[in-house]
Amino acid sequence: MAHTDIAAPPQRKLEIVPRKSLPVVAVVVIGLIVAIATNSLWAIGFYHVVGGGMWTAIDLFLGFILGPILGTMSIPSRIELTRRLMPKMVILMPTLVIMTLAGGFQLARHQGFILSSDKHHAWVVASMIIVGALAIVAIGILEPANIAVLFELRKPNPNGERIGRLMKRFLYTAGVTGILQAGILVIMTRIATL
Amino acid sequence: MSAATMTHGASTPERKFPPIAEMSVAVLISMVIGGVFVAAHLPAHVAMAFPTIMISLAAVLLAANVVLLSRIPNFAWNSFYKVARWTLLAEGIVAGLLEYVFIFDGTRGAVLLLMSSTLIIFVLDLSVLFGFSVARFQEE
Q1: How many domains in chain B?
Q2: Interface TM-score (ipTM) > 0.85
Q3: Is A128 an interface residue toward B (CB < 8 Å)?
Q4: Counting Cβ atoms within 10 Å, is residue A157 exposed (0-12), middle (13-18) or buried (19+)?
Q5: Is B8 a domain residue?
Q6: Is B9 part of a structural domain of the chain?
Q7: Are residues B2 and A37, on separate chains, in Cβ contact within 8 Å?
Q8: With bands split at pLDDT 50, 70 and 90, how would you rate the model's confidence at A189?
């Protein structure tokens, strides 16, 4: 039987923020500013739907699919996945969040949903409350844990127990954001069909 | 990372710190409550008393947090400043974009001042939170 080499690939120094992705983020943000400045309803809607769809899908995937799988993996395996996944999340999620929120607020303004006399207003306010809760969990708990794990992984001898504890916090909060995102799905489909 | 190069850390209990992260989250909660209140009333007239109380509370909590942080002995300040500086830049760009949206939408006067203050506190709070979250596990 032929021998198969399953040794781990050589490790490069962990990059907290993938610099190669920054020009892509710059293009997306400049496009968002142009969309708002030109009052292009299509472009604003595009940013809101694409950003919101990806944000929701990624949160649900992390919270309910990848999270439970990660929870059953050994700590070295979790670390391998974390090294590759988390730097991408550091740059992807804030970009999606700003696309969704800036696009969504402009869309609601153009369509009159933010006027208190509008029939959609209560649903829009409900979505603001859920997004506020999402922001607190994601920015206040999830993201600091993510960044702390990445810095721990850069050490010559990372503390496995600490990484395991921080990852557990990351996975629980990803589950909470997944549940909140399910609420956003209900509200957005309600607004679209009211 | 191989398992052989990882330490398990069971024999070295984590160092205790003041509740910096918890207070930063409290600042975030105050700002979100005030921010949602204002956003829910725009573009109509907004009663300023409640959001002003929330933003003032956030500012006081942030100031108290900075004082608590500055009194920690033997803290990894290099790591703290490194992370805090980059967070300031990244979140500053996000806050700048939101400020642009407020001004573009015609927000002016006291409401703009309140929203701008909220954004400034938001950026400073996240810089403290992210910097502390990393530096607490570093040794210098």
Answers
A1: 1
A2: no
A3: yes
A4: exposed
A5: no
A6: no
A7: no
A8: very high
